[in-house]
Automatic annotation (TrEMBL):
Gene that this polypeptide is encoded by: CENPP
Any GO CC annotation of this UniProt entry: nucleus
InterPro entries reported for this sequence: CENP-P
Top-level taxon of origin: Eukaryota
Record GO biological process: CENP-A containing chromatin assembly
Name by which UniProt lists this protein: Centromere protein P
Length: 172
């Protein structure tokens, strides 16, 4: 949904906006969608930039094909884990269809105490799969929270048992 909104914004940007009120309204809609996605996933995007380059066709057979290379860079966090992504999307449009493919993906993460997270990152980079990265990051953080709460539960339980044991010893 967000990708569709960004594509519509990109396409409508070249045509201009009817008024600044339309632009503010559209920007408000995008901000509310981003807030909704951040609340839903726990992933917060802090910075984002995109550069677009239209690739020229040199072959006669490809004159009717348009290729656009988009270079994206974003940074954000999911709970306590900070990340930065750099990726490229190649869009190829001919008369009948439009296809997009991620041609490069680089994930940079600050070192954490969670070494198993690097496996998710490596796999996502190899497959150039952004959805896999975001989904894995979301579930990884969610499970870390579950483990933390479980550990706290047992820690509190063991402290209660110690306290009861000390009281029994004092009574005897």
């Amino acid at each position: 949904r967000a990708q569709k909104s960004l594509r519509e914004m990109y396409q409508s940007d070249s045509g201009g906006w009817a008024s600044s009120k339309d632009l503010r309204s559209h920007l408000g809609n995008l901000e509310s969608e981003l807030l909704f996605l951040s609340t839903l996933t726990g992933i917060s995007i802090r910075n984002y930039s995109m550069k677009t380059e239209v690739l020229t066709n040199t072959e006669k057979t490809e004159k009717s094909i348009t290729k656009v290379l988009q270079r994206h860079r974003l940074s954000g966090n999911c709970q306590m884990i900070t990340f930065q992504l750099e990726f490229q999307i190649l869009e190829i449009q001919d008369k009948e269809s439009l296809s997009s493919v991620i041609t490069d993906l680089n994930i940079i993460m600050e070192p954490t105490e969670y070494s198993e997270l690097s496996e998710f990152v490596s796999r996502a980079e190899e497959r150039r799969d952004l959805l896999m990265f975001f989904r894995s990051l979301h579930f990884f953080v969610e499970w870390c929270e579950y483990r933390k709460r479980t550990f706290e539960h047992f820690k509190v339980g063991s402290e209660v048992l110690k306290f009861k044991h000390i009281q029994k010893v004092r009574l005897v």
